[in-house]
Design brief:
Blueprint lengths: L1 H15 L7 E3 L12 E3 L6 E18 L14 E2 L3 E15 L2 E14 L2 E14 L12 E16 L2 E5 L3 E10 L2 E3 L3 E13 L3 E17 L1
C-alpha cells in the first residue's frame, strides 16, 4: 500500500507540473507578499475551492482468492474464482481543487460483479487525485485528466449468501482518465471516465475496470 502511494502521487504531480506554467506567470512589476518573488498567480478559470464528485457505471473484473485462514491460503482445493464477471461500480469523493489542473480529495469506491456462480463484493476508502497535465495547451485539454486513487478496504466472494473467500484487509490502487465534456448549472461538470482498479491481500487478488459517467461540483470560479 505504501509503495503504491509513493509511486502514484509523484507520478500525478509530475505530469501536472507543466500546467503550472499557465497559472504562475512572471511579472516584473508584481511582488508576491508572502515570498517576495516577482510572480503572481493567475485567477482560476475552471476549478477552485471545495469540490465533490460521483461516478457510476458498468464494471468488468475478476477475483481469485481463499478464505482468510492461514491453513487454506494458497491451497488449490480451497481457491475460488469468478472468472470474467460483470456488474456495477460507483464512487464518491470530497476535496479541494488546489489549482485548475490539480484536485485532491478523500472518498469511497465500491464494485460488485458476478461470474462463474460467484459474486465479488467489496470497496475501499481512498485518497483521490486528478491532474490535468495538458491544461496549458488550452481547448479540450483543459478538461482532460489523469486520475489516481490509493486506499484500504475489503472484499468477499459469495455463493448465494455463503462467504467462500475473504480478502480480509485489502490495498487498492486505481488509475484512469476522465473528460469533463460539458458544464451545467454553472458549477457542475459531467463526462465519461475509464478507470482500472487492482485490490490485493494475502488471500485475494481482484482486478476490475469501470466505464463510468462522472459528475463533479466546484465551488469556483
Amino acid at each position: 500500500m505504501r509503495l503504491a502511494a509513493w509511486i502514484l502521487v509523484p507520478c500525478l504531480l509530475a505530469v501536472a507540473a507543466p500546467a503550472a506554467a499557465d497559472i504562475a506567470q512572471w511579472n516584473p512589476n508584481a511582488v508576491n507578499e508572502d515570498t517576495g518573488a516577482n510572480y503572481e498567480l493567475g485567477k482560476a478559470e475552471r476549478r477552485s475551492d471545495f469540490t465533490f464528485g460521483v461516478l457510476f457505471g458498468p464494471a468488468m473484473g475478476s477475483s481469485s482468492g481463499y478464505l482468510n485462514e492461514l491453513e487454506k491460503i494458497d491451497i488449490p482445493q480451497y481457491q475460488e474464482k469468478t472468472g470474467a464477471g460483470f456488474g456495477f461500480s460507483n464512487g464518491l469523493w470530497l476535496g479541494v481543487a488546489l489549482r485548475d489542473w490539480l484536485t485532491f480529495g478523500i472518498g469511497i469506491r465500491s464494485a460488485t460483479f458476478e461470474g462463474n456462480g460467484r459474486r465479488s463484493e467489496g470497496g475501499a476508502f481512498v485518497l483521490h487525485l486528478e491532474g490535468y497535465p495538458l491544461y496549458a495547451q488550452g481547448g479540450l485539454f483543459r478538461d482532460l485528466a489523469l486520475v489516481g486513487e490509493v486506499g484500504l478496504g475489503g472484499r468477499q466472494l459469495k455463493d448465494g449468501n455463503k462467504v467462500v473467500a475473504d480478502a480480509g484487509s485489502t490495498s487498492e490502487i486505481s488509475i484512469g482518465v476522465q473528460w469533463e465534456a460539458f458544464r451545467y448549472w454553472t458549477h457542475f461538470t459531467g463526462g465519461p471516465a475509464l478507470l482500472v482498479t487492482h485490490e490485493s491481500s494475502d488471500s485475494m487478488q481482484t482486478t476490475y475496470g469501470v466505464l463510468a459517467f462522472r459528475t463533479a461540483f466546484y465551488g469556483g470560479p
